[in-house]
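Recall from the previous lesson that a structure prediction takes nothing but the amino acid sequence as input. Here we apply that procedure to Syntaxin-binding protein 5 from Pterocles gutturalis. The sequence below is the only information supplied.
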Amino acid sequence: TVRHGFPYQPSALAFDPVQKILAIGTQTGALRLFGRPGVECYCQHDSGAAVIQLQFLINEGALVSALADDTLHLWNLRQKRPAILHSLKFNRERITFCHLPFQSKWLYVGTERGNIHIVNVESFTLSGYVIMWNKAIELSSKSHPGPIVHISDNPMDEGKLLIGFESGTVVLWDLKSKKADYRYTHDEAIHSVAWHHEGKQFICSHSDGTLTIWNVKSPTKPFQTITPHGKQLKDGKKPEPCKPILKVEYKTTRAGEPFIILSGGLSYDTVGRRPCLTVMHGKSTAVLEMDYSIVDFLTLCETPYPNDFQEPYAVVVLLEKDLVLIDLAQNGYPIFENPYPLTIHESPVTCCEYFADCPVDLIPALYSVGARQKRQGYSKKEWPISGGNWGLITQSYPEIIITGHADGSIKFWDASAITLQVLYKLKTAKVFEKSRNKDDRPNTDIVDEDPYAIQIISWCPESRMLCIAGVSAHVIIYRFSKQEVTTEVIPMLEVRLLYEINDVESPDGEQVPPLPTPGTGSNPQSIVPQSHPSTSSSSSDGLRDNVPCLKVKNSPLKQSPGYQIELVIQLVWVSGEPPQQITSLAVNSAYGLVVFGNCNGIAMVDYLQKTVLLNLGTIELYGSNDPYRREPRSPRKTRQPSGAGLCDINEGTVVPEDRCKSPTSGSGSPNNSDDDQKMNNFIEKVKTKSRKISKMVANDIGR
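The prediction returns the following C-alpha cells.
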C-alpha cells in the first residue's frame, strides 16, 4: 500500500545531512520518510500518539521518535520496511525535548518537571544519570524554572551541556563534575537556543520577539539584544514587543557573515499578515511569507560536524499543509521546485478516477504538454533531499489517476511507479466569467462556495476525449490537441431538464409545451428536444427562467496544447427553480455522444453536431414509481401524474446494438419506414424501462 499526498497534521521534522533523508512526524503518530524523488516510505506508531520530536542517528540508518504519550522509539531504517527496534516509556514525567549529539551514544531527554534523563541509545535503557532541576539552577531562581525547552552540547566540548528552561533561565552543565559552570537569567520566556560553531556564543529566542546573544563566560547580561521586527523608537527607548520568536538557528559561513534564521517575531500591528520566515545575513533582512503556519524548520548545511563552519545552503520549512525548500545560495532566496506529489490537496479533491492499461503513448503525450506548464522562478539547483535508492518497479503497464478539485482544476498523475508524478493540469474554470467580488456574483448560483468544483469525470483513454460535470450543473467536453488554438466563440448548449412534463399547467402555474406523459394513451410527439438559449432571464410571472448558473466568456479564448474545449453544456433554471446537480455522466467518443442525468431526468447530446438528441424527465422514465422521494414545490395542489406504472421488459427486446446508437441514427423496428414512427417506438421503450435497464443503457453508451 502506497500513500500519496501531504502528511496530515505534521508536528515534527528531522534531517540526516549525510544520508540526505528527511523525516516528518504527525499528530496521528505517522512517520513519513523522504529521499530522492520517488523514494518515499510510510510508517505508523501503534499508539497513534502525536510525534513531538524526531532525531536521526546521523549516517547510521536509525531514527529516534519522541511521542506525546511519553514514549521513545528507536526505528531501524536499514531494512526494506522500517521497524521499531526498542521502546522506552516514561511513567512519572512528561517528555518535552530530546537531544542526540552527532556520533554520540547518549540521548538527553528533558521533561516537564525540568529534569534531564540520559538514555543509552545502543541498549535503549536509562543510564541512571539524572540532572535535577533544583541542582541545575540552585539559588539563581526562587521558583521552578519550568519545563525543559532546549538541550544541546557545546560544539567544542561535548562534556558541556546547555540547558534551556522555559522561564528564561539557561544553564551550562558540566557532565563530568555534575555541576553548573554558568547560569544565564533573562526576564522573558525562552522558546529556542542555538550555538555559534566556535562554542563561545549562543543565541536565544524569546516570547517578546527578541533575540539575545550571550558570551559563554559572561553570564550577567546578554552581549547583544536584537528585535528583528520591532520598531526602533526614538530617545533610546526599548522597541515595542513583538510576537514570540518560536525558533532560531545560528549558522556560520567561512567566507562571510553568519546566517540568523527565525520563525515568528512579527510586530503585533501586522494584522492579517501571513506567517513568515526571516533570514538575517549581515545587514540584510529578508522576510519570506508562507501560505500556511510554520510547524518547524531546519537549516541544511554542508557539514554534519557542529564545530566547523556550517556553510548553510538551504532551509527546509514544514508548514501545516506544505513543504518548502529555500535556496540560501541564490539572491532573493528562491524556492526549489518540489518533486514530491504533495500538492494533491492544493485545492481539495472532489472526485478521483483510476485508469489501468492505458495506451503506451498516452503518458508521454500528457507529459509533453504538461512540461510547458512549468512555473518560472524556481532555484536552478537540484532538489537537495537526495538520499535513498529506488526499488524495482513491478508494474509494467501504464496507470493514470485523474483528480478533480474544488477550484475546477483537473490533474493527471502518472501512477505507474510507486510514486505519483503530475503529468498535466487543466483549469476548467477559465471558460467562465469570474465575479470580482461577492456583490457582483449573480444570484443564479446553486452553491455558495467553489462553483467550479468537479463532481464527475468521464474519460476515454483511447480517443483521449474528456468529459467533466461540475457542481453548478455544467458539463464540459474536451478534445486533446498538440496545437495551440484561439477559440473565437466558445461552443455552448443550454438544456432544460424537467421533472414534470405535462400538456397542462405545472404546479408552479407555468404553461409548458405538450410532451408525452406515461399512460395517457396518446402518441408522443415526434420531435427531438433542442437546447433553449437564454434569451430572457425571467418568465412572464417574474420567475427566473432559462438562465444558467455560470456565465460563459464571450471573448476569444486562447487554448494551450493539451485539452481544449469542444462544447460547454449548462442546465438552466426553470420557472424559478434552479437546475439540480448532475449525478451521472458518460461519454462515447465512437458515436460522438455524451449522456448525463440528475434526479429530474436524463439528456443525450451529440457533441459533434452540438445538439440535444434526447431529453427525458424522470416521470417519463418511471411513471408513478419514481424512486426519488420529492417534497412538493408549491403550496398549490400538486397534480398527480397518470403513470401507468412499470412493466417488466425482457432484456432481449432491445438489442445492444440498438441501445448504443442515438435515436437519430436510424435504429428501430424494421417494419416502420417513417422516421416519426421510429422515434415513437424508441420513446415508448424508454418510458417503460426500470432503473436496472436504464443503468444498462448508460453503461452500454459508456462502453
